[in-house]
Amino acid sequence: MKQKMSRIGRPSSGQWGFMLLFGLPPFLLFTFVTVVPMISSAYQSFFDYSGYGDMTWVGLDNYRRILTDPIFGGAVVNDVIILFFKVIIVLVLAVTFAVSLTRLNFGHSETNVLRFVYYIPNILSSVVIAKVWKYFFDLELFSLVTGLTTPENGWVSTYPLPIIIFVASWCGIGAYMVILIAAINNISKELYEAAEMDGAGQFRQLFSITLPAILPQVRYIAISMLTSIIGSNMNFVKLFLGESMHGSGFTVMGVYEYDYAFSRYELGYANAAAVILMAIVIALSYVFNYVITRKEKS
pTM of the predicted model, to two decimals? Predict the structure, then answer.
């Protein structure tokens, strides 16, 4: 009996074959594409290296330079501000739209049209989105709509941070809304029926049933936005400001790293910046995950 029980839960030879066939290739690909470059980047961060030629050991000098560089500090602050407002805006609007399309009495055709309209930004390229919005501000259409006076240097160059927050948030709502719609549709209808019988209105149902049930999806959305912060923010800054970003004094972490790696050819220094950025992202991801997990358990 004990021998039979000890064998329970052990994978069979067929299961091992299945796991190796479908699990080993993705693992090797992930190791080659993600883990190896991370280790290589951390190793090169201790050298003075231009990307070719000899590597000169400098120890922690690259890290000392970065941590005492006010431009890097400003880039970190800009990224954190963009992330903070982007997470709030995207979550609030994605939840609002998802709840509206699932809990309100829209017709089937109306729901499909609204889903498509909200999802349009995710279909378009970031280049197209940035160009359209840049023209909107540069051609003074924004001033025409709002009645405000256009600044001397233009809206984008004068207020890059709020504009990038707005556009970056607008781009992310549709995809995350679809995730939340799927999560809300999986909530048992009996819970809502019981709540209605107890006299709970739509807002009470939202905060007592819907939001607690979709917290895992909210956690995924927040961490997903956090892990993509470097690439997404860099793309919008480069597309909106272009060459003028060097004179505007506005930068983000991804642009800072890119500039030192491919413009100044200080690859060792850029890798040190990448390691620091990775540590910041890991720390923030842990905080997000810890806070939301505690909320789920409570």
Answer: 0.79
